Amino acid sequence: MCVAWVLTAHSLPPLQALGSLCSPWAAPRVGPLPPAPAMVRISKPKTFQAYLDDCHRRYSCAHCRAHLANHDDLISKSFQGSQGRAYLFNSVVNVGCGPAEERVLLTGLHAVADIHCENCKTTLGWKYEQAFESSQKYKEGKYIIELNHMIKDNGWD
Q1: Which of 82, 68, 91 is nearest to 142 (CA)?
Q2: Are 51 and 9 in contact (CB under 8 A)?
Q3: 6 class by beta-carbon count within 10 Å (0-12 exposed, 13-18 middle, 19+ buried)
Q4: How many CB atoms lie within 10 A of CB 7?
Q5: Could you give the CA distance from residue 85 to residue 132 in angstroms, rounded to a whole number?
Q6: Where is the signal peptide (predicted)?
Q7: Is the dihedral of CA 13, 19, 23, 25 positive or negative?
Q8: Contact (Cβ atoms closer than 8 angstroms) between residue 95 and residue 64
Q9: Pairing of strands 150-153, 143-146
Q10: pLDDT tens across 90-104, in order?
Q11: Dist CA 23 CA 25 (whole Å)
């Protein structure tokens, strides 16, 4: 793990003390020196868990640019998310899954689990765990990502 050290603003000595320490015209300081600035440990942002191939068109998180899916895994662009249009994908990467719960969606009752970006923790959509109607079984194990949470990345000329 990479670690950086940063001075915090509240840990700096008062301006008057700095002036008397730094100014060549100031009278010599009498008494103890101000305390050393406190250091705060900040860890480097973590990298993505998976990177998709650079030669393919892909979709990435709109908030942190983590890779989410290859265009080849796109099944349908005709879905409705809770906040607008959404795409259905066969597989995704860098995504975490919440607990499954039953929801009545536009196409009937489904067991779904919310999915979020593993890098920035933004909720992206959901995963279909189970469909209760036979005509909807094709969605099981597939992922919905809302358009407002993803961008087209790499090779979309």
Answers
A1: 91
A2: no
A3: exposed
A4: 12
A5: 23
A6: 1-17
A7: negative
A8: no
A9: unpaired
A10: 999 999 999 999 999
A11: 5
Domains and CATH numbers, the chain: 58-153 (2.170.150.20)
Q: Would you state the pLDDT for residue 13?
A: 47
Query: Over the stretch 31-85, which tens digit does the pLDDT of each residue have?
Result: 666 665 555 544 444 455 777 766 678 999 999 999 999 999 999 999 999 889 9
pTM of the predicted model, to two decimals? 0.66
Q: Read out DSSP for the chain?
A: --EEEEE-GGGSPPHHHHHHHH-TTSPPP-SPPPPPPPEEEEEPPPPPS----TTS-EEEETTT--EEEEGGGEEEEEEEETTEEEEEES--SSEEEEEEEEEEETTEEEEEEEEEETTT--EEEEEEEEESSGGGGGGTT-EEEEGGGEEEESS--
Closest C-alpha among 140, 71, 59, 53 to residue 95 = 59
Short-list 72, 63, 39, CA closest to 123: 63
> So what's the pLDDT on residue 156?
62
Q: Which amino acid is at 46?
A: K
